[in-house]
Amino acid sequence: MLPPERDLVRDLAEWLPRQRWFGGKDGPIHDLTIGTATELLHGDPSLHHLVLDVRQDDTTDHYQLLLGARRDLPDRLRHVEIGGPCGDRSAKARLYDAAHDPDLTRVLLDALANGASAGPLRFHHADGARIRTDLASLPMTAEQSNTSLLFGDEYICKLFRRLSPGVNLDLEVNLALSRGGCARVPAVLGWIELEPGRGARAGEGGEPVTLALLSDYLHTGVDGWSLAIASVRDWFAHTTPPGGDEWAELDASAAGGDFAAEAERLGAATAEVHRALADAFGVTVVPAGEVRAMAARMNAELTGTCRAVPGLAPHAKALTEAFLDLAARAGPLPVQRVHGDYHLGQVLRTESGWTVLDFEGEPARTQSERRALAHPLRDVAGMLRSFEYAARFLITRAGAVPSESGPRLETRAHAWAARNRAAFCRGYAAGGGPDPAAHSVLIRAFEFEKAVYEVRYEAQNRPAWLAVPLKSLAHLTA
Ligand SMILES: Nc1ncnc2c1ncn2[C@@H]1O[C@H](COP(=O)(O)OP(=O)(O)O)[C@@H](O)[C@H]1O
Ligand SMILES: O=P(O)(O)O[C@H]1O[C@H](CO)[C@@H](O[C@H]2O[C@H](CO)[C@@H](O)[C@H](O)[C@H]2O)[C@H](O)[C@H]1O
Q1: Strands across the sheet with 222-223, in order?
Q2: Element (H, E) at 281
Q3: Which atom of ligand 2 has the smallest separation from the CA of 145?
Q4: Could you write out the three-class secondary structure of 62-100?
Q5: In which element (H, E) is residue 206 found?
Q6: CA-proximal residue: ligand 1, atom 16 (nearest)
Q7: Hey, what's the signal peptide range on this chain (predicted)?
Q8: What is 222-477's CATH number?
Q9: Do residues 394 and 236 lie in contact, with contact meaning Cβ atoms separated by under 8 Å?
């Protein structure tokens, strides 16, 4: 039912850059080929699993796609159509992103439940997991770099869009933490892999490539980003009593939706997860020379990102100073597995406390960079950046607030971020983590490193958000 490969490739090359999860929006696609195509369901509709090899400049990335094909495309699927009607008169089919079609995604649940295989695809379930197959899927609308499908209130299936060689970190870490008894991660129920050496360049490394992860869906949970934004909105709307001094009353605790107690609990939960990671994977100490090399890498990344995103250049001097400061004071540093991309969208508040999600590391980095051991304060710095993002998101994202209230809200944003950053650090130290206040040089360097990454990430993935890290850098480096 699929069209000739040439037509399909042309349509995909036009469609891909418009997808939220496509990580190469800062440059053209030079070549797109189909690495593997596996039919998962025959007939009308049909379901095909594709790995796309996408070359941009001298790098080739691999993206996975569930491609649906139907003779008649129902209205509910028109928004995810790829290209126009295709094929010859006898086999005309409409193609679309099948992640949005519950009639087709149920094939994944069936295959996971049965431990099936199809071509180079292997479906696995975790020991003892009994997977229901009667649930219809709905794609999540969260701001995310992958695509997650909710199966009823029970399961969440994350389809990794850009594929990395080897076992996916999210799978590896979640399995290790759950096996170690850490209750702060959702249970892993199953996963899908691409076998190596079956024609897919994504699998050429000799190890299976993780394509998807099925976990327990914590349906009563609310992510930290939504909670924080609600709190900021409330704080912005909080009115100063008549006759009160607007500037003197910047006590964010006065607003109804104060987040500080949650931020403090989140800090403590983070320290607990770091301990569990250390128990599961161990801790090692790197010598001062490696810390200096790390500071040099941070600076090199800054230089590269300034070239790609000139808006970063005005902050370069202050950022370099922080990296030099780190190098000058370098001493031996304990390092371990960490979360790697820790922010408010990665934590979920459930009735039993904070749960930590997505140990995949930063999607804009290479697999070996993501796997590298780091000091746990790198995650703390990531979360501190997230408080900055949350505080400034409503102001910076165009049209969210009237421009005349800008300066007043800037002051409020600053107060909100400061209050919640302090609470998070307090909770982290009280929970047994290294005290951020005693490591200000390290934290500042990590924060700036993250901000540089964010500038690059936003330019490549969400150009409309680029102003958020740039504006917050203007504040942090002022
Ligand atoms: N097990 C889960 N239970 C409930 N919600 C989840 C779960 N896993 C992820 N989510 C929701 O999905 C969002 C995106 O998940 P995440 O794993 O961070 O995807 P991505 O790597 O694509 O950003 C999270 O912010 C959270 O709201
Ligand atoms: O969640 P992912 O693993 O896909 O992480 C990537 O995307 C994040 C955005 O979805 C991005 O996070 C940045 O934006 C967040 C708000 O949307 C903010 O809370 C974070 O602090 C900020 O870094 C993350 O950097 C990127 O790797």
Answers
A1: 222-223, 347-350, 353-356
A2: helix 260-281
A3: 4
A4: EEEEEEEEECCCCHHHHHHEEEEEECCHHHCEEEEEHHH
A5: none
A6: 358
A7: none
A8: 3.90.1200.10
A9: yes
Number of H helices, E strands in the chain: 12, 18
Stretch among 14-28, 95-109, 426-440 having the lowest mean pLDDT = 14-28
Average pLDDT, the chain: 91
Q: Indicate whether residue 343 lines ligand 2 (CB < 6 A).
A: yes
Residue entry with tokens 């008649």: 72
CA 216 to ligand 1: nearest atom:
1
3-state secondary structure 413-464: HHHHHHHHHHHHHHHHHHCCCCCHHHHHHHHHHHHHHHHHHHHHHHHHHCHH
Contacts (Cβ under 8 Å, ≥6 apart) of 188: 126, 171, 174, 175, 178, 213, 214, 215
Nearest protein CA to atom 26 of ligand 1, as residue: 223
Q: Is 261 exposed, middle or buried (0-12, 13-18, 19+ CB in 10 A)?
A: exposed
Rg, C-alpha atoms of the chain? 23
Tell whether ligand 2 has an atom less than 6 A from the beta carbon of residue 358: yes
Split at pLDDT 50, 70, 90, the class of 227 is very high
Please give the model's pTM, rounded to 2 decimal places.
Answer: 0.86
| Domains of the chain, residue spans | 1-217, 222-477
- Give yes or no for residue 248 having a pLDDT over 70: no
The crossing angle, in degrees rounded to 10, of helices 440-461 and 316-328 is 140
Beta-sheet strands, E only, within 4-74: 31-41, 46-56, 59-70
pLDDT in tens, 464-473: 899 999 988 9
Predicted pLDDT of residue 273: 98
pLDDT band at 437, cuts 50/70/90? very high
